[in-house]
Amino acid sequence: MVDYFKARIFLEPNEVPKEWVNIVPDLPTPMTPLVNPMDGKPAPPEMAFAIFPKECVLQEVSQEETIPIPNKVREILVSTYRPTPLHRALGLEKELGIEGDDIKIFYKNESVSPTGSHKPNTAIAQAYYAKKDGLEELVTETGAGQWGSGLAYGCNLFDIKCTVYMVRASFIQKPGRKILMRSYDAEVHASPSNLTESGKAFIAKDPDHPGSLGIAISEALEHSLRSDKIRYSLGSVVNFVLLHQTIIGQEAKLQLEKVGIKNPDVVIGCMGGGSNFAGLMIPFAKDKLNGINSEVEIIGVEPRACPSVCKGEYRWDFGDTSMKGPIVKMHTLGHTFIPSPIHAGGLRYHGIAPIVSILYNNKVISAEMHHQNEAIGAGLQFAKAEGILPAPETTHAIKEAIDQALKAKEEKEKKVILFNFSGHGFFDLLAYKNYMTGDLENYELPTEEIQRALASEEMPKIDESQF
Amino acid sequence: MVDYFKARIFLEPNEVPKEWVNIVPDLPTPMTPLVNPMDGKPAPPEMAFAIFPKECVLQEVSQEETIPIPNKVREILVSTYRPTPLHRALGLEKELGIEGDDIKIFYKNESVSPTGSHKPNTAIAQAYYAKKDGLEELVTETGAGQWGSGLAYGCNLFDIKCTVYMVRASFIQKPGRKILMRSYDAEVHASPSNLTESGKAFIAKDPDHPGSLGIAISEALEHSLRSDKIRYSLGSVVNFVLLHQTIIGQEAKLQLEKVGIKNPDVVIGCMGGGSNFAGLMIPFAKDKLNGINSEVEIIGVEPRACPSVCKGEYRWDFGDTSMKGPIVKMHTLGHTFIPSPIHAGGLRYHGIAPIVSILYNNKVISAEMHHQNEAIGAGLQFAKAEGILPAPETTHAIKEAIDQALKAKEEKEKKVILFNFSGHGFFDLLAYKNYMTGDLENYELPTEEIQRALASEEMPKIDESQF
Q1: Does one domain contain both B273 and B219?
Q2: Residue B310's domain is classified under what CATH number?
Q3: Which residue of B has its CA nearest to A11?
Q4: Same domain, yes or no: B409 and B443
């Protein structure tokens, strides 16, 4: 038996951070702007104000080191689920044959939020700012539904209408999340839908189109332009969302200090748009850029079916499939690329956060890929050893943490490994069922498919010398 | 907006209780024994030892005021999910038009356990005792699956095999819980099954028999007799299970004291077998029996489709449908009664804990009934106001808490209301979907049906004068 008393590290409610940590001023190469698709030039603030709540736009371009968390937002976080626990994975260590304290695995448990993932950390903030702006509705896209249910929860707190375009494949496969969103009074549509021009174009090609995050973003963006009382809300990729998630890494640092650990050796998170990974690692990456614990390895983990960073190209691309929104510079598989239907719906995005791209280009962080069978297998191993069933997205981080621990064991190294347990898998049980019955497919993305998507005529040509 | 900082009351890890609270020595009329169906006399200890782990049998008949929680059990509780939060339902109060501090609604949130309900509180203890006895397997029944997944989790912690007979209707309707149990390596069978004589008899009558908790108990009991390394495990009804749950009420008392509340006015829980209700209320009922806060109202809530206490008879009856187990004295609808298929599967039990029966007979507690539409409607109102989606079982307690609060508001009374939030509804979303689409049926149990079940020839005749 393991010593369970060492296994959960608590914080006091008043230790929940009072500010978000901004990494933009520390980036080794300058932050790239959002670009207006009309003229290929940096989007003027008016354009961004027409899409997002005002305060979010200001945070997007802020050069401040930290940004205060509004009292009301912090109050809600503290009264509902923060601070979240940091667990020492003693059960998993035992399962891996790791004894003693040379190798320690920790995970930050974001699954304890009301909707079961890290997403409310930014949803609550965005809904708060929307209310402040006098808005009446936020509209968004969702894949597996973690973000959609997070935003539905946030909007409901502030009596704002929430509309969600949900990727059709998930809409059908994961009815639970849809019902959860509706229980918070959100309006949920399968995407592509007949409610937008973008959606209609895809339905015309294929009435049963499975959809993608890129298409759903196009529909949500189009919907947001219906009225001046509606804005678009994004659950990842952009700077201000990553900023709101830094509460995760700040708490984790404090919790590690409480058990005498000044710095972890490895920090791991799964990457879709990049927000849960960034939320955990930004405080550590900021330290690293400032010469503190510069040895820390920071690893983002992608599915082999959609490896935007590991196999994509760093270039200008649309964030959405129908080219409705701004152009961003990021690692991308091309906005026309439709990923295979892996269960980790939140990782099925063709691009990645620009901040994550810049950190990767400058070797501040690295990236790994795993197949969904290996990931879900690691998730099941984790569930048996630690008791909590992870979301398919999260299993990718777990697989990497296990690999890192086993490598350290073989090489007889001392190592502190920290990963983000971004969400539970209670709405994704089909993935586990299929794994257990041997019916889970692995998808390896062929290089030709990436080349084809990147060579599409629709890929934007941006002349940076014009900025 | 409400003041969210008042809304969650924390405890320190070292404030998790070190002992369980036993109400048996305080009961106003003596505890009734388990009776041997063979001779109609109190079951000898050997009989109980053949069914349950040894320490559990000793706890079942203990007259001690308190019983120490084994260190290992407490360590696991503290390292995984305890103390659980106590929430002030400020969102719900606002929704009900309650202002100020005259009426306060609190709920104890047991949904934060790894399997999402209060069940691990006893599952961990039972698995620990089973391991201590050198057992290799625990076998049990489950309805909606809260208990089955709780025990699967507990057994997995101690490397004991877990076998679960799951009521067939739920096995089909709630595939999620089945996959969760299997992810902890449990073996799960639809009940009635072809694996036991009891099961075969029901399948012979109807190959698609929907099953019931009473039938599943019979199968599990029969299975437990296969080997001396197997014992039966029960998730409610008997004294030692209620004892293990008293950790809930003890924590809640301490948490209320932290916000200056010495005693609540109303304590509420939903009742199936009675364990979550008893776990919350026993510390308060024990006080009441000892002249402390004797005004407290303690209310157990049943579904109208299965009102064992409100409409059943207090008499000797079998705990299981096939008359394999001991006979107990309790409020019962008759062991042959098959309840309507309400979504609150955990409340579909023909009887109730003997301790709860005795407290009810002596007017220490009272009971109420609600229809499932009203309950699920209250659950949805709660989800919107508080953010957490309740299990269908839990919604019955919520409905009663809302009614009590509205009554106090109308009568301009001061009132502190406390209820047990026994579990979340992430595995029970169909109930909410059907409610929202108007497809949820109400079932009122006809008196003739109860009379028929209670008049069955199979009802045991016990002569207490022979004891």
Answers
A1: no
A2: 3.40.50.1100
A3: B12
A4: yes
Most B CBs within 10 Å, among A179, A182, A437, to test the B interface? A179
Domain boundary among A239, A272, A305: A239
- Would you call A145 helix, strand, or coil by DSSP? coil
Do B289 and B390 share a structural domain? yes
Residue A367 lies in a domain: yes
Structural domain count, chain A: 2
CB contact under 8 A, A436 and B156: no
Q: Give the single-character DSSP code of A205.
A: H
In A86-115, the residues whose Cβ lies within 8 Å of chain B are 87, 90, 112, 114
Query: How does pLDDT run across B166-186, given as a tens digit for each residue?
Result: 999 889 888 899 999 999 999
- Domain end marker among B213, B239, B265: B239
Strands A137-142 and A161-167 turn out to be parallel
**Chain B interface disruption, residue of A10, A74, A77, A80, most B CBs within 10 A:** A80
The whole-model pTM stands at 0.95
CA distance B5 to B83: 18
Residue B382 contacts A, CB cutoff 8 Å: no
- Same domain? For B300 and B422 the reply is yes
Do A225 and A258 belong to one domain?
no
| A175 at B interface, C-beta within 8 A | yes
Query: What number is the ipTM of this complex?
Result: 0.94
The answer to whether position A27 is within a domain reads no
Amino acid identity, position B298: I
User: Based on the domain organization, do B83 and B122 belong to the same domain?
Assistant: no
* Nearest Cα residue in chain A from B131: A1
Kindly state whether A432 is in contact with chain B, defined as any CB-CB distance less than 8 angstroms: yes
Closest CA to A249 of A21, A450, A75: A21
- The CA distance from B116 to the nearest CA of chain A, in Å, is 10
The span from the CA of A390 to the CA of A382, in Å, is 8
DSSP characters over A285-343: HHHHHTTSSTT-EEEEEEETTS-HHHHSEEEEEESSTTS-S-EEEEEES-TT------S
Put simply, the answer to whether B116 touches A176 (Cβ < 8 Å) is: no
Torsional sign, CA B271, B276, B278, B282: negative
pLDDT by residue for chain A (467 residues), tens only, comes to 455 667 899 898 899 999 999 999 999 999 999 999 999 999 988 888 988 999 999 999 999 999 999 999 999 999 999 999 999 999 999 999 999 999 999 999 999 999 999 999 999 999 999 999 999 999 999 988 999 999 999 999 999 999 999 999 889 888 899 999 999 999 999 999 999 999 999 999 999 998 988 899 999 999 999 999 999 999 999 999 999 999 999 999 999 999 999 999 999 999 999 999 999 999 999 999 999 999 999 999 999 999 999 999 999 999 999 898 899 999 999 999 988 889 999 999 999 999 999 999 999 999 999 999 999 999 999 999 999 999 999 999 999 999 999 999 999 999 999 999 999 999 999 999 999 999 999 998 889 999 999 999 999 999 999 88
Q: Would B192 be classed as within a structural domain?
A: yes
Q: How far is B328 from chain A (nearest CA, A)?
A: 34
Contacts (Cβ under 8 Å, ≥6 apart) of A272: A143, A236, A344, A346, A347, A348, A349, A393
Q: Which residue type occupies A48?
A: A
CB atoms A179 and B433 under 8 Å: yes
Q: Domain check: are A215 and A254 in the same one? A: no
Pairing mode of beta strands B230-232, B137-142: parallel
The label of the residue with tokens 């790791």 reads: A98
Does residue A256 sit in the same domain as residue A109? yes
Q: Which domain holds residue A165?
A: 43-65+117-239
Chain A residues within 8 A of B10 when measuring between CB atoms: 12-13
Verify whether the Cβ–Cβ distance B179 to A427 is below 8 Å: no
- Contact list in A for residue B436 (CB cut-off 8 A) is 179, 182-183
Determine, yes or no, domain membership for B175: yes
Interface size between A and B, measured as CB pairs under 8 A: 111
- Residue B389 contacts A, CB cutoff 8 Å: yes
